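Ticket #4471: structure output looks truncated?

Reporter: J.K.
Steps to reproduce: submitted the chain below (376 residues) through the standard prediction queue, then opened the result file.
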Amino acid sequence: MGDHMPEDSHENVPSRQRRRFEGISSRAYEHPADRSALVALRKLSGFDTVFKALSGLLPERSLRLLFLSDSVRVSDAQFSHLNDMLRDACYILDLEKVPPMYVNQDPQPNAMCIGLDEPIIVVTTGLVELLDEEEMRAVVGHEVGHALSGHSVYRTILLFLTGLALRVAWIPLGNLAIMAIVTALREWFRKSELSADRAGLLVGQDLKASMRGLMKIAGGNHLHEMNVDAFLAQAEEYEAGGDLRDSVLKILNVMPRSHPFTTVRAAELKKWAESRDFQRIMDGHYPRRDEDGSTSVTDSFRQSAASYASDVKDSKDPLMKLVSDIAGGAGDLGGRVRRGFGGFATGSTKTQPRTETPTDTPDDESPNGSNGSGTT
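Returned output as attached by the reporter:
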């Protein structure tokens, strides 16, 4: 590494030269929607402390004992190459305490970071066997990013609150309220995964390896049969293709998920890797964690709102284009909705004269509401 490591921590770091981000705040890589929620929670002094004290009521203790008794703990003596990656990731992101890491026998490729008192990282044998060293390094960095952001604490807290709310579901409109909580919680989960993907890139500092890892998670260990450009093209086709019916189906498909779809994750990560924000971090200009206490909640929410507004404006999804056009005052809204849903009954297809308005644009007149190809 370029910097000298303290003798008492993060030893046995692989020799490849990677930039270290001393004192980096997780705000540097967090998605704006994830960041705004975390900043607000961190301002609630004592909130997480209370729930840490209640950790005995949660299944965390049981999980710790389960992994300790029925999984393999990563160390210099066991899965030493993973131990090197873990120490390397903690060194690069300047995470002071290296979290315990376990390998669990499970053919399903997966990894997670859980815990209230202290985070635990768990990776499955399916994932270890699927990924090469550089791909796995990005995954370990992903989980260390969760730990640095405090996702493990706040995820457990919110899951606990959600479970508590389920016990009072008999209250009138209780189910609707709980579904709203769960839906918002899952949306945050998905954004926190995008944040952790960015942390994985900061640790691995190899975009190709991150892309390969996501492709393997989607399509298995047949890398010679896959192509990054074609994989990213799937994400663009997914976003822009179809009509308003497909847009609704996309929403319904993603709502139960805690993770974004894999092609979407790849496209989002590539977009961030090409951004000015990423380059500034790599150049050593990033927010420091000693400044976290002075972070404005209002500013964080404004950035989150601006991010969502930008996503809607730039999206090629038919529904998002319609929403953007409504906000912009586009004309012939009824006609565009009918075309977006593929028309109504075939018997009522008489052509009616139509008056153009100044806000109509020829690019938006295609049946699927898309103006063709473009970059995300």
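Triage note (M.O.): checked the attachment and the full token line is present. The chain has 16 helices and four strands.
Status: closed, working as intended.
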